[in-house]
Design brief:
By secondary structure, the protein is α/β, with parallel strands linked by helices. It is built from nine helices and six strands; from the N terminus they run βαααααβαβαβαββα. Helices cover about 45% and strands about 10% of the residues. The N and C termini lie close together (about 10 Å).
Length: about 210
Protein backbone atom coordinates (compact mmCIF):
# COMPACT_ATOMS: atom_id res chain seq x y z
CA UNK A 1 0.00 0.00 0.00
CA UNK A 2 1.38 3.39 -1.00
CA UNK A 3 1.52 6.08 1.66
CA UNK A 4 3.86 8.64 0.12
CA UNK A 5 4.51 10.27 -3.25
CA UNK A 6 7.58 11.95 -4.75
CA UNK A 7 6.79 14.31 -7.63
CA UNK A 8 9.00 15.65 -10.36
CA UNK A 9 8.18 19.30 -11.06
CA UNK A 10 8.71 20.39 -14.67
CA UNK A 11 6.26 18.67 -16.97
CA UNK A 12 4.39 17.04 -14.07
CA UNK A 13 3.16 19.89 -11.88
CA UNK A 14 3.80 22.78 -14.29
CA UNK A 15 4.15 22.99 -18.07
CA UNK A 16 7.67 24.40 -18.33
CA UNK A 17 9.66 21.89 -20.43
CA UNK A 18 8.92 23.68 -23.71
CA UNK A 19 10.03 27.06 -22.40
CA UNK A 20 13.34 25.78 -21.04
CA UNK A 21 14.06 24.26 -24.44
CA UNK A 22 12.96 27.44 -26.22
CA UNK A 23 15.20 29.66 -24.12
CA UNK A 24 18.18 27.33 -24.68
CA UNK A 25 17.56 27.09 -28.43
CA UNK A 26 17.19 30.85 -28.83
CA UNK A 27 20.48 31.63 -27.07
CA UNK A 28 22.32 28.94 -29.04
CA UNK A 29 20.83 30.27 -32.26
CA UNK A 30 22.24 33.74 -31.60
CA UNK A 31 25.66 32.09 -31.35
CA UNK A 32 25.24 30.17 -34.62
CA UNK A 33 24.12 26.77 -33.31
CA UNK A 34 20.87 25.00 -34.11
CA UNK A 35 19.32 22.94 -31.32
CA UNK A 36 16.51 20.71 -32.56
CA UNK A 37 13.87 19.29 -30.22
CA UNK A 38 15.07 15.79 -31.11
CA UNK A 39 18.69 16.51 -30.14
CA UNK A 40 17.59 18.30 -27.00
CA UNK A 41 15.53 15.28 -25.92
CA UNK A 42 18.58 13.04 -26.39
CA UNK A 43 20.72 15.38 -24.32
CA UNK A 44 18.17 15.77 -21.52
CA UNK A 45 17.72 11.99 -21.13
CA UNK A 46 21.35 11.79 -19.96
CA UNK A 47 21.10 14.84 -17.73
CA UNK A 48 23.45 16.89 -19.90
CA UNK A 49 23.37 20.55 -20.84
CA UNK A 50 21.80 21.90 -24.02
CA UNK A 51 25.07 23.74 -24.55
CA UNK A 52 26.80 20.42 -25.13
CA UNK A 53 26.39 20.97 -28.87
CA UNK A 54 28.57 24.08 -28.66
CA UNK A 55 31.12 22.46 -26.36
CA UNK A 56 31.40 19.52 -28.79
CA UNK A 57 32.30 22.08 -31.46
CA UNK A 58 35.17 23.39 -29.34
CA UNK A 59 33.54 26.31 -27.53
CA UNK A 60 35.16 26.49 -24.07
CA UNK A 61 32.97 25.98 -21.01
CA UNK A 62 34.04 29.39 -19.73
CA UNK A 63 32.20 30.88 -22.73
CA UNK A 64 29.15 28.60 -22.67
CA UNK A 65 28.74 29.41 -18.98
CA UNK A 66 28.05 32.99 -20.06
CA UNK A 67 25.48 31.69 -22.56
CA UNK A 68 23.84 29.65 -19.78
CA UNK A 69 23.48 32.79 -17.71
CA UNK A 70 21.71 34.50 -20.61
CA UNK A 71 19.52 31.42 -21.10
CA UNK A 72 18.58 31.45 -17.44
CA UNK A 73 17.50 35.09 -17.70
CA UNK A 74 15.43 34.37 -20.80
CA UNK A 75 13.86 31.30 -19.20
CA UNK A 76 12.84 33.34 -16.18
CA UNK A 77 11.28 35.87 -18.53
CA UNK A 78 9.15 33.10 -20.01
CA UNK A 79 8.23 31.84 -16.54
CA UNK A 80 6.92 35.31 -15.72
CA UNK A 81 5.06 35.93 -18.98
CA UNK A 82 3.83 32.59 -20.36
CA UNK A 83 1.04 30.32 -19.14
CA UNK A 84 2.63 27.32 -17.46
CA UNK A 85 -0.19 26.06 -15.25
CA UNK A 86 -1.54 22.56 -15.82
CA UNK A 87 -5.29 22.51 -15.20
CA UNK A 88 -6.47 20.43 -12.26
CA UNK A 89 -3.08 19.92 -10.59
CA UNK A 90 -3.84 21.90 -7.44
CA UNK A 91 -7.13 20.07 -6.92
CA UNK A 92 -5.42 16.70 -7.33
CA UNK A 93 -2.68 17.59 -4.86
CA UNK A 94 -5.24 18.85 -2.34
CA UNK A 95 -7.09 15.54 -2.47
CA UNK A 96 -3.95 13.40 -2.38
CA UNK A 97 -2.55 15.34 0.58
CA UNK A 98 -5.39 14.01 2.74
CA UNK A 99 -4.00 10.48 2.42
CA UNK A 100 -0.34 10.75 1.38
CA UNK A 101 2.86 12.41 2.51
CA UNK A 102 4.36 14.18 -0.49
CA UNK A 103 7.52 15.89 -1.66
CA UNK A 104 8.96 17.41 -4.84
CA UNK A 105 12.30 16.26 -6.27
CA UNK A 106 13.29 18.48 -9.19
CA UNK A 107 16.27 19.24 -11.42
CA UNK A 108 15.22 22.89 -11.47
CA UNK A 109 17.39 25.56 -9.91
CA UNK A 110 16.01 26.78 -6.58
CA UNK A 111 15.63 30.33 -7.97
CA UNK A 112 13.57 29.06 -10.92
CA UNK A 113 11.48 26.81 -8.69
CA UNK A 114 10.63 29.65 -6.34
CA UNK A 115 9.68 31.88 -9.26
CA UNK A 116 7.45 29.17 -10.70
CA UNK A 117 5.68 28.52 -7.41
CA UNK A 118 5.60 32.00 -5.91
CA UNK A 119 1.81 32.24 -6.01
CA UNK A 120 0.50 28.83 -7.11
CA UNK A 121 -0.03 27.22 -3.73
CA UNK A 122 1.14 23.79 -4.90
CA UNK A 123 3.96 23.57 -2.39
CA UNK A 124 1.46 24.00 0.43
CA UNK A 125 0.73 20.29 0.07
CA UNK A 126 4.37 19.20 0.18
CA UNK A 127 6.54 18.12 3.12
CA UNK A 128 9.68 19.33 1.36
CA UNK A 129 11.26 20.32 -1.96
CA UNK A 130 14.68 19.22 -3.27
CA UNK A 131 16.19 21.30 -6.09
CA UNK A 132 19.29 21.10 -8.28
CA UNK A 133 22.51 21.11 -6.28
CA UNK A 134 20.84 19.89 -3.10
CA UNK A 135 21.72 16.21 -3.69
CA UNK A 136 25.07 14.60 -4.63
CA UNK A 137 24.31 13.67 -8.26
CA UNK A 138 21.44 14.78 -10.49
CA UNK A 139 18.96 12.60 -12.38
CA UNK A 140 19.36 10.11 -14.09
CA UNK A 141 21.39 9.03 -11.04
CA UNK A 142 19.24 7.69 -8.19
CA UNK A 143 20.59 10.16 -5.61
CA UNK A 144 17.74 12.72 -5.81
CA UNK A 145 15.00 10.18 -5.17
CA UNK A 146 16.98 8.32 -2.52
CA UNK A 147 17.36 11.61 -0.67
CA UNK A 148 13.68 12.31 -1.18
CA UNK A 149 12.84 8.92 0.32
CA UNK A 150 15.10 9.70 3.27
CA UNK A 151 13.24 12.98 3.83
CA UNK A 152 9.88 11.21 3.82
CA UNK A 153 11.22 8.53 6.13
CA UNK A 154 9.16 5.61 4.79
CA UNK A 155 10.00 2.47 2.87
CA UNK A 156 10.54 2.11 -0.87
CA UNK A 157 7.56 -0.23 -1.05
CA UNK A 158 5.35 2.51 0.42
CA UNK A 159 6.49 5.11 -2.07
CA UNK A 160 5.66 5.97 -5.67
CA UNK A 161 7.34 8.50 -7.95
CA UNK A 162 5.55 10.60 -10.57
CA UNK A 163 7.69 11.56 -13.56
CA UNK A 164 7.36 12.64 -17.18
CA UNK A 165 10.81 11.93 -18.64
CA UNK A 166 13.10 8.99 -19.29
CA UNK A 167 15.78 10.77 -17.29
CA UNK A 168 13.51 10.86 -14.27
CA UNK A 169 12.37 7.29 -14.81
CA UNK A 170 15.98 6.09 -14.84
CA UNK A 171 16.52 7.88 -11.54
CA UNK A 172 13.45 6.23 -10.03
CA UNK A 173 14.37 2.77 -11.30
CA UNK A 174 17.93 3.21 -10.02
CA UNK A 175 16.51 4.11 -6.61
CA UNK A 176 14.38 0.97 -6.65
CA UNK A 177 11.08 2.87 -6.37
CA UNK A 178 7.97 2.32 -8.51
CA UNK A 179 7.33 5.10 -11.02
CA UNK A 180 4.23 6.46 -12.72
CA UNK A 181 4.79 8.34 -15.98
CA UNK A 182 2.32 11.13 -16.74
CA UNK A 183 1.99 12.07 -20.40
CA UNK A 184 3.87 15.14 -21.62
CA UNK A 185 3.94 15.96 -25.32
CA UNK A 186 7.52 17.15 -25.08
CA UNK A 187 8.82 13.81 -23.78
CA UNK A 188 6.35 11.39 -25.38
CA UNK A 189 9.09 9.83 -27.54
CA UNK A 190 11.14 8.74 -24.50
CA UNK A 191 11.50 5.08 -23.54
CA UNK A 192 9.09 4.41 -20.67
CA UNK A 193 9.14 0.62 -20.86
CA UNK A 194 10.36 0.36 -17.25
CA UNK A 195 7.55 2.47 -15.81
CA UNK A 196 5.15 0.78 -13.40
CA UNK A 197 2.18 2.75 -14.77
CA UNK A 198 1.48 5.32 -17.46
CA UNK A 199 -1.29 7.90 -17.20
CA UNK A 200 -2.51 10.70 -19.44
CA UNK A 201 -3.25 13.29 -16.75
CA UNK A 202 -2.47 13.75 -13.08
CA UNK A 203 -6.17 13.27 -12.30
CA UNK A 204 -5.73 9.58 -13.15
CA UNK A 205 -3.34 9.30 -10.20
CA UNK A 206 -6.33 9.65 -7.90
CA UNK A 207 -7.95 6.54 -9.33
CA UNK A 208 -4.66 4.68 -9.47
CA UNK A 209 -3.73 5.29 -5.83
CA UNK A 210 -7.06 5.70 -4.07
Amino acid sequence: MKTQILFDNDGVLVDTEHWYFTASAEILNTMGFHLSEERYREIMINGQSAFLIAEEAGIPISETDQWRARRNELYQHYLRTEEIAIPGVKEVLAELSERFRMGIVTSALRCDFELIHASRGLTDYMDFVLCSGEYPRAKPYPDPYLMGLERLGGEKSETIIVEDSERGLRSAVGAGIECVIVHNRFTESHDFSKATHRIQTLEELLTLLT
